[in-house]
Task: structure prediction
Amino acid sequence: MMMLMDALQGLVSVDTDIFLFFNGMHNTFWDYFMSAYSGKWQWIPMYAALLYVIGRNLSWRTALMCVIGVALVITFADQVCATLIRPYVERMRPSNLDNPISEMVHIVNNHRGGRYGFPSCHSANTFGLAFYLFFLFRRRWLTFFMMAWAVLTCYSRVYLGVHYPGDLLAGMLVGLAGACLVFFLFRKVSGYKRVGHVTHANVPILTGGLTVVVMLVYAAVMSA
Result:
């Protein structure tokens, strides 16, 4: 038992060191960019583009069930993290003022998040969506873009000081579990067969990429 506790303490120590390393690399430009990138409403155009691709490539009945599946993935990820795990693990966010390392943490706009952060809902939600779309379409560039989007979202949470890397890794696993479970149910209910040729798969990539460009311009202007 003591060996297990020592091993866990060692992992926590490494997790903290990795967090402090990446959180310590910051400047005004990235403060603005990461704060914007980590938001929710900014990504509505990309979400709309994803709905467009689903609607263009699936029958209305299958598309409807697919969208319900997306909602279930997000709900599963969010509730497992926030309701089932966080209250029992009670791992404080690094930015929380009761955390001994909080004085060493770089935060932006005085945003510290809630009290607990393990696992990360941001990580679970974004990776849940990314994995679900991977199972659905298996398109190389769409998958690459969505995974990169999820990874950068996770990095933004470390940058902003509200999550340890371990929070994000655990969130990713929750998102993957939710995507696997919901996609299995979706296939059983809908009889879905993977689409051989996915049309307009570049629309979410272009929309999301444009959103990132706008954020970069915004950060450049605000930090000038």
Remarks:
- Residues 63 and 164 are 36 Å apart (CA to CA).
- The mean pLDDT is 94.
- The chain is about 70% helix and 0% strand.
